[in-house]
Specification:
The structure holds two protein chains of two kinds. In chain A, 5% of the residues lie in helices and 57% in strands. Chain A has a 22-stranded antiparallel beta barrel. Chain A has a five-stranded mixed sheet with strand order 9-16-17-12-13. Chain A has six helices and 51 strands. Chain A starts with a helix and ends with a strand. Chain A has a single domain, classed as Maltoporin, Chain A. In chain A, 48% of the residues are buried. Chain A is mainly beta. In chain A, a hairpin with a 2-residue loop joins strand 2 and strand 3. Chain B is mainly beta. In chain B, the strands form three sheets. Chain B has a nine-stranded mixed sheet, with no helix packed on it. In chain B, strand 8 and strand 9 form a beta hairpin. Chain B is globular. The N terminus of chain B is likely disordered. The chains are: A mainly beta, B mainly beta. Chains A and B meet through strand 44, strand 45, strand 49 and strand 50 of A and helix 1, strand 1, strand 2, strand 4 and helix 3 of B. Strand 44 of chain A pairs antiparallel with strand 4 of chain B.
């Protein structure tokens, strides 16, 4: 009896515990009340049974957390927005969509910061930098035109070879090792005007995230970083617009509802007019010169139901550079992304994406019958499904699958001669498929420890139609020579020519030391199957992407990073972090001396391979709120490469090795009308190779380096100060919603001629002996004035 | 394709760049032997010039001559042709008649013994395409250039892939040499990898090196074109040399040494020689502009 009673009591207790433990999920979207824009960087929290529960919405603003039935105060917050506290009685799974309003004073001046103050300490992710477009707009910019990629270069771990170089280098990685995504479409060349501006129109960009380490398993295919640029969705409540007129180009953006609260669009464009402005100053012979770029960013989205939403976004743009009749060169990217957000239930969110992306260039010389035409491109088609599963408050699982088909056109080139003959130098297309499945599991062990483990399995197939080349091994010990072709084997359409399969483990962990500090560590393995072939000092638009083949092995990188994060001051006014990393890189590509990289079917016989290593420490301190905001970033780093056949088979620094990299960014709001900003950057000089001596053969005087070394000297350091002042203009009485400002700027204030490179040349009319030339891309102060508006 | 890049360099410098001559400290340098041995079967004197490298900023042509070397050219039967140092030009070693070198398609070896080192190199005597004719046409000029005659040669590449040629031009018996670019051909065009075998040389090659805007042809001038067959290795050497001589701006590639084909047979020595040995058939054609 007693026993029976006990059992019954236990059963009852168990049942009641189960009943008590009945949990419900609260989920929904966090959006901007004025525009309907998703707020992916917002923060959702509540307290359940004395325990703090938090949820970070995903990039689409979707959040989900699970709590027992009861009454809750749920806090929604976002930097630059008025926080909202919702009272909610939870007795079933509940959908709660929240609109947050911007703080009034921030409407005049964008005071939005990329992250919630102090957020870095609490999140598991590390080596991540976020910039909101509001922050980017306050940074003094070249010619007054704010730019996403140039702003990134002020962050720790990010550098560039110099002004006028395409792309950026992250933690010792080459520029092709960054996965640059615009609304999830890969961008193969992110530069306009040889790198002075990036393809991202700031009026259309919502936010920018750079992931340098602890890279989630959902991303793959590049070794060094992920730059995730998200464009705005388009205001779903009312029509709005923005734009500006500057010295080099003009911008315009319009957004608005197609059907209120259902569907919206965004359309943004830019066009430069350097050639038009320069015309009066050019000789007659050059007056027809064309030198410009334009781009268009467009997006529409439609909310079919609370559970389904579709986005379509597109970018297309071109740079054009021509002297009609003699020479023409244009290049550009096109992307098209279709996305479908589907909420299966309160805990499972999916995003299905289909992507088309293409980069191409065209080059022509001569005119009429006497001409040379050359086209090259890379096109990819990609499909991806990823799921966010908010399994419990302790566990969040992301998983999915991605497949990409590549079509490479290394060069279609035809020379026509006036005598009627023509020559075709064209190379056949190359094709490849890259696939991956991935899973990331983030688990909160307890209040202080969060672990995240992930795995990506990547698969690559170099497929026909194509020819696989096999080379004779180098017969001598001098590897710095082109290889001789042994055999070439042709493969039919879709036949596999070479397969690779790689598991890519990812791991990160966070240890909360106290409420204001944490320690994080991460490991990731990345594999890269496509490579940008470039042997010039700076990457140029002519560079060609090439797939991995039977000769070119996938590049592999392992990275370990450890970071310490600390907030201090009142309300976490200051954020401080220090991170160190070490990276091991394999199958890095280099080139034999004199390699012919363009229009060469035997390119693969002219490549050298080796290992790289990169390590460094990044220090970062930031003040994100108040009248004075800004940050200081300092990176101490090395990047070296070992290529058999170069530099006497010893490690040498890469061209983008910058041991010291300092940025100081500050901005001060004097009053409602005036904001003054300034940046200072210092980067140690890049490595270079100088001749020691000279000799003459057959009348050709050839520079010579008796040490046979590579990159063993450095050019002088790069440093620069920029200032800008933003002046809010008075509103017009008739049109009160029209806000406008004037931005005065000065780039390179103290007029320094920063060397891009130092090169050597023979006697000229002015200098009768061999001499060194300092080549500066920008050699003087560049003042600017820009007018911006929005409504 | 480098010609395209040069154009880019020009355009990009014109548009964006800013260039200043500066003082740079170069590291101490080990002085090395330089052997300039480009031989052919022209009648008359054939020369090999021995010098030593000098500091990069030293005046041009200040490379000191290297005297007292022993030089022998060996044919495929090891028959030696001795080069003797000139009495008037130290460092210049002379053989009286190039017509003795007539075994086209066969290997020749060059042995240079100097200051305790013995450098050896082997090269196969390459055939040259026959020159068919010289053509010229009057150009009325423009604001930059006075009226002149544009000259080109006509010739067909020899049948068989991989013939390489070194083409030089003379105005009134003086070599036209910019010192910056050599007119070299791989089959009938610029570079390997495309099929240009056995056809007429393409237009740029027919004109490059002949027409120098600072030294144009006028009525009455004598024009001469020499086509010399060269080994693929020397083609690469000239290609690399040209690249290193014109390596600046946004499109510069990492500077590197131009490899020599001389090997030091003195095992106890680590000294290297720079320069090149090549031997080839030479064809010439000349005319007076009228």
């Amino acid at each position: 009896m007693n026993i029976k009673h006990t059992i019954l009591t236990s059963l009852f207790l168990l049942v009641s515990m189960v009943t008590f433990a009945q949990n419900y999920t609260v989920s929904g979207y966090v959006k901007d009340s004025a525009s309907g824009e998703a707020l992916g960087n917002s923060f959702v929290s509540t307290t359940s049974a004395g325990k703090f529960v938090d949820a970070f919405p995903n990039a689409y603003g979707f959040y989900s957390f699970t709590v027992p039935a009861g009454n809750y105060k749920i806090k929604f917050s976002m930097p630059g927005y008025i926080s909202k506290i919702e009272q909610l009685s939870v007795s079933s799974n509940t959908t709660l969509n929240i609109n947050l309003a911007k703080k009034v004073n921030t409407i005049k001046k964008v005071r939005v910061t990329g992250k919630k103050a102090g957020e870095d300490v609490g999140k598991t992710e590390m080596s991540v930098n976020k910039l909101s477009i509001g922050q980017i707009k306050r940074i003094p910019a070249l010619l007054g035109e704010v730019d996403v990629v140039r702003s990134l270069q002020l962050l720790p771990g990010v550098s560039t070879v110099g002004e006028g170089a395409s792309g950026f280098n992250v933690r010792g990685g080459n520029i092709d090792q960054n996965l640059v995504l615009l609304d999830e479409a890969p961008v193969f060349n992110s530069s306009h005007l040889f790198g002075f501006f990036s393809v991202f129109n700031p009026d259309a960009v919502r936010n920018v995230t750079l992931v340098k380490g602890g890279i989630p398993a959902a991303y793959g295919g590049r070794l060094s970083s992920v730059l995730d640029v998200r464009s705005k969705e388009g205001n779903i409540k009312k029509f709005a617009g923005a734009g500006g007129v500057g010295a080099i180009f003009s911008r315009g953006m319009i957004e608005g509802p197609i059907k209120k609260d259902k569907s919206s669009f965004l359309l943004a464009g830019r066009r430069s007019y350097i050639d038009v402005l320069a015309k009066p100053f050019l000789n007659e012979d050059l007056q027809d010169a064309v030198f410009n770029f334009w781009d268009v960013t467009a997006k529409v989205n439609y909310i079919f139901s609370p559970l389904n939403r579709v986005f379509v976004s597109s970018y297309f743009g071109r740079d054009k550079f021509a002297f009609p009749g003699a020479f023409g060169f244009d290049w550009g990217s096109q992307t098209l992304t279709a996305r479908w957000n589907h909420t299966f239930n309160t805990k499972l969110f999916s995003n299905t994406t289909a992507v088309y992306s293409k980069y191409d260039y065209r080059l022509e010389f001569g005119s009429g019958n006497d001409r040379f035409d050359w086209n090259s491109d890379i096109t990819n088609y990609s499909a991806k499904i990823d799921f966010d599963w908010f399994a419990s408050n302790k566990q969040k699982i992301d998983f999915g699958v991605i497949g990409t088909y590549y079509d490479f056109r290394p060069g279609d080139a035809v020379a026509n001669q006036s005598n009627g003959t023509s020559f075709d130098f064209s190379l056949p297309h190359k094709y490849a498929f890259e696939g991956g499945i991935f899973i990331d599991d983030e688990y909160k062990v307890n209040r202080n420890i969060t672990l995240k483990g992930g795995l990506r399995l990547s698969y690559y197939d170099y497929i026909g139609k194509g020819t696989a080349y096999y080379y004779n091994p180098n017969p001598t010990d001098d590897l710095n020579k082109p290889l001789d072709l042994d055999t070439a084997i042709s493969f039919g359409s879709l036949k596999s020519m070479q397969r690779y399969f790689n598991p890519e483990p990812r791991f990160s962990a966070k240890f909360q030391l106290d409420s204001s500090s944490s320690l994080k560590l991460s490991y990731n393995r990345m594999v890269q199957y496509i490579h940008l072939i470039s042997n010039t000092t700076a990457s140029v638009p002519l560079d060609v992407w090439t797939p991995s083949t039977n000769n070119i092995k996938p590049e592999i990188a392992d990275q370990v990073a450890i970071g310490f994060f600390k907030n201090f001051g009142k309300k976490a006014l200051f954020e401080f972090s220090v991170e160190t990393y070490h990276k091991w890189l394999g199958n890095q590509i280099n080139y034999v001396d004199g390699a012919d990289l363009l229009l060469n079917a035997q390119l693969e016989g002219q490549l050298l391979y080796g290992d790289g290593r990169a390590y460094g420490a990044e220090f970062y301190i930031k003040k994100a709120s108040g009248k004075f905001t800004g940050w200081i970033s300092y990176t101490l780093a090395r990047t070296e490469i070992l290529i058999n056949g170069l530099n006497n088979n010893e490690y040498f620094p890469t061209r983008f090795d910058r041991p010291h990299n300092l940025s100081v960014v500050g901005s001060y709001d004097f009053n409602d009308r005036w904001t003054v900003s300034s940046t200072f950057s210092y980067q140690a000089g890049t490595p270079a190779t100088f001749p020691t001596s000279q000799y003459t053969v057959q009348g050709f005087t050839i520079p010579h380096n008796a040490l046979n070394s590579r990159n063993d000297v450095r050019i002088p350091a790069y440093h620069r100060l920029d200032v800008s002042a933003i002046h809010q203009l008075k509103k017009w009485k008739k049109w009160a919603s029209w806000e406008h400002e004037i931005v005065f700027g000065a780039y390179n204030v103290y007029n320094r001629r920063n060397p891009f490179s130092i090169y050597f040349q023979g006697p000229t009319d002015e200098i009768t002996r061999n001499h060194a030339i300092r080549y500066s891309i920008i050699g003087s102060i560049v003042p600017s004035i820009t007018y911006n508006f929005k409504f | 394709m480098r010609n395209i890049l040069y154009l880019f360099i020009l355009v990009s410098i014109f548009t964006l760049g800013c260039e200043d001559p500066i003082e740079v400290d170069l590291r101490d340098d080990k002085k090395e032997l330089v052997i300039d041995a480009v031989l052919n079967n022209d009648s008359g004197i054939q020369k090999i010039i021995l010098t030593r490298t000098v500091g990069y900023f030293e005046p041009r042509g200040s490379n000191p001559p290297v005297s007292g070397a022993s030089i022998a050219l060996l044919d495929a039967d090891s028959f030696p042709y001795f080069f003797v140092e000139s009495a008037t030009e130290p460092g210049t070693y002379i053989y009286p008649n190039g017509q003795d070198f007539n075994r086209i398609g066969e290997q020749y070896g060059l042995v240079v013994a100097s200051n305790g080192d013995t450098f050896v190199s082997i090269s196969t005597m390459a055939p040259a395409a026959p020159l068919d004719s010289l053509l010229w046409r009057f150009e009325s000029g423009n604001s930059f250039i006075d009226p002149y005659y544009e000259v080109e040669f006509a010739a067909k590449d020899l049948v068989g892939t991989g013939n390489t040629y070194f083409i030089r031009s003379f105005k009134n018996d003086t070599l036209l040499n910019s010192g910056e670019s050599a007119n070299i051909a791989y089959d009938a065009a610029f570079s390997p990898g495309a099929d240009f075998d056995g056809i007429e040389f393409i237009v740029p090659i027919r004109r490059i090196g002949i027409n120098d805007f600072d030294n144009t042809f006028q009525l009455g001038d004598k024009v001469e074109v020499q086509m010399m067959g060269i080994s693929n290795e020397f083609f690469l050497f000239l290609n690399l040399a040209e690249q290193q001589i014109n390596n600046g701006g946004l499109f510069a590639t990492p500077p590197s040494n131009v490899p020599s084909n001389f090997v030091n047979r003195t095992t106890s020595s680590e000294n290297r020689a720079n320069g090149f040995f090549v031997i080839g058939e030479s064809n010439r054609i000349s005319a007076i502009i009228q």
